[in-house]
UniProtKB/TrEMBL annotation, chains A, B:
UniProt-annotated location(s): Cytoplasm
Primary residence: cytoplasm
Subunit structure: Homodimer.
Domain PhoU: 20-107, 129-209
GO biological process assignments: intracellular phosphate ion homeostasis; negative regulation of phosphate metabolic process; phosphate ion transport
Gene name in the database record: phoU
Stated name of the protein: Phosphate-specific transport system accessory protein PhoU
Keyword line: Cytoplasm, Phosphate transport, Transport
Superkingdom field: Bacteria
NCBIfam families referenced in this protein's UniProt entry, alphabetically: phoU_full
Presence of the UniProt keyword Cytoplasm in the record: yes
A single Gene Ontology CC term: cytoplasm
């Protein structure tokens, strides 16, 4: 490659790298706005979240295409190839976080559009705060190619799962006490599930960063341990 | 490339191609067995599904690594590159179908391990049959690089979504009639959701095959139409 080509290649890599961060920022805002709309009943905000999802989908398609172009034209190797593969995987998870934001916004809109004024009887803010923190940390790890937050993110994921289970137990109690709340409680249950999924996808992103930095695939570490080997040996 | 290298390259591409089909077959069996165990209460079968999931995870990691190797060593272009990218994406969705099978099996095990004998009061078989048919059709499309089933799979996906909504309505009725059934009904609701997700992921695989065959990215077609353009233009 000539020096000029190298420079172009670097620019292209930087473009997909910053694309992930831009997409991540957008997705984070979508989740935060969906939760804000759920709390305040701001229907306009919820509708903006629902309509905004397609921008994230388009961003995924765009970045995916750029990654394909880089592989075809530049034949990246080693850490450059790992960056491209990490981007391809990370944007798929970010797109799905976008879907979860949309689901939350749609459910919140239904809840706040009913005949009776709706107020949330379970506290989702702790789990939601954790999931958003996981997302930010995962993006930050990617930005700095630094895996020091990974162990904490894995721990937070367990906490988010526990929050979901706690919410489910609370909702079951409410539903048993007053069966008229069943429909609304199910909407809230699916919102809690969506928050849990935001955590799962953020954890995935953090795991891809380990692959990016160290070349190790750390997904399903428990599966691999059960098998008594390493996947790449 | 020498003729020898070409042959090796072909062998490698064939290996990842058949790897997807093998993984797909395994995943299909997992879903079918989980549903069978739900119906019959065969706890041994359900436990085999739960334990079997890690094999699918390992298969994904293995195939993913093989795809990375092919890109690094062979620098594939055009349809060969599209095959590798399709494999990388398809195995991620197949792995998630495996997760859904495991979720169904775990919920079924809890339902059949309660003090009271459990029998399913909603009929999930129609939606489950559709979702499994979508999975088989998507894998078949991939095997034959043939997109003729794609439109039907998209239609079936809508039907599976409608089945889920119908099941949810039925379950709400049961829960309101007899609040003691709420916990079990929620387990069944999450099983119905998992079936719907099997449909979603199968649809994704079918969409990747369109990319493989035609080089068009047809995901989020509605988003793109809303934006008034094509993603790659």
């Amino acid at each position: 490659m000539t020096e000029h080509t190298y420079k172009q290649f670097d620019t292209e890599l930087e473009k997909i790298r910053s694309g992930v961060l831009r997409m991540g920022g957008l997705v984070e805002t979508q989740v935060a706005n969906a939760l804000e709309g759920l709390k305040t009943g701001n229907i306009g905000l919820l509708e903006r979240v629902i309509e905004g999802d397609h921008r994230i989908n388009l961003l995924e398609i765009e970045l995916d295409e750029e990654c394909n172009q880089i592989i075809a034209k530049r034949q990246p190797a080693a850490v450059d190839l790992r960056l491209v593969m990490t981007v391809i995987k990370a944007i798929a998870d970010l797109e799905r976080i976008g879907d979860e934001a949309k689901k939350i916004a749609k459910a919140a809109k239904r809840l706040h559009s009913g005949e009776m004024p709706f107020s949330l009887r379970v506290d989702l803010s702790y789990g939601a705060g954790l999931a958003l923190d996981m997302l930010r940390s995962a993006l930050d790890s990617f930005a700095r190619a630094d895996i020091s937050a990974w162990a904490r993110i894995e721990k937070q994921d367990e906490e988010v799962d526990a929050c979901f289970k706690g919410t489910m137990r609370q909702l079951i109690t409410f539903m048993m006490e007053d069966p008229r709340t069943i429909s609304n409680s199910l909407e809230v249950l699916f919102i809690a599930k969506a928050i849990e999924r935001v955590g799962d996808h953020s954890k995935n992103v953090a795991e891809y960063v380990v692959f990016l930095v160290q070349g190790r695939d750390v997904r399903y570490a428990k599966s691999v341990a059960a098998e008594g080997g390493t996947p790449q040996s």
